[in-house]
Hints:
Structural class: alpha/beta
Number of domains: 1
Mean pLDDT: 94
Radius of gyration: 19 Å
Number of strands: 7
Oligomer: single chain
CATH superfamily: Vaccinia Virus protein VP39
Strand content: 25-35%
Number of helices: 11
Shape: globular
Bound molecules: S-adenosylmethionine
Distance between the termini: 40 Å
Amino acid sequence: MAERLFEGQDHARVYQKYRFPPQEALQKAVFSYLDRKGGAFGLALDVGCGSGQGTLLLAPRFRKVVGTDVSPAQVKEAQQAPHPDNVSYQACPAEELPFADGSVDLLTSFTAAHWFDIPRFMREAERVLAPSGCLVLTTNTLDMRLHFRDCDQELTQIFQEFRDRLNPYISDKVRLVASDYKEIFEAVPFQDKERVTDIVDKVPMTVAELVGYVQSFSMFQLYLKAHPEEARSQVQRLQDRLLKAMGTTSLETKLEFWNRQVCILASRRPIPDS
Ligand SMILES: C[S@@+](CC[C@H](N)C(=O)[O-])C[C@H]1O[C@@H](n2cnc3c(N)ncnc32)[C@H](O)[C@@H]1O
């Protein structure tokens, strides 16, 4: 069974405000693969699109892009955000995609596939992808570091201590992330597939943005639901400790958030016999 999180309107609003799209290194891995595979650029589906930050990246390359998500609240946020005419959004589960057999040229999912019912999702991917279609599944991993002048270690430690507080709220599904999507990779039903596990993006963000971003984590939202006051005070403590270690009082001070990402790249086209 797929697990239902991210459904609340407040969570969706935090998503829209603080989630950032796939950055340079991840984009390069994805788009250079698509260029290499040379499939068609008609219809792209971004499944588990959340508030649509990753979906928008596909718009310049595909005639039509549809972001889908099981959460109507996330879809509503995506629809309300500015988007080009060739992008639309639809609420539906990843395991029942309302698209015709063989009609999709690219199926992506950014930091969402671990929430799906994987066997059912893979059957849908196999059904909707065109004969030369590609499947791209990426995720942020739990390897996260903070960088600022000479206090990287201290900041990363403060951040880690905050994340340790969230451990009781980590879903079982996050095991798939902890193993770098190994099980998901094995379930991809195509012969032509690869898994890249060392993509690191360095995302510049202010302390305010970082503190907003951590509140989009599913485990933080569960913590907030279980212990609202404690969760809010831990966020405040994270913010105060980061500012102190950085020697600033301004929430607009920029630091860098480094995150390792994993990317599964697959093509439906059979590998030619050599
Ligand atoms: C961590 S968020 C990622 C959102 C977005 N792709 C991003 O990179 O910011 C996971 C998303 O997957 C969606 N989701 C979870 N289970 C799903 C399912 N079975 N079918 C479709 N979407 C699902 C959630 O509603 C949520 O919006």
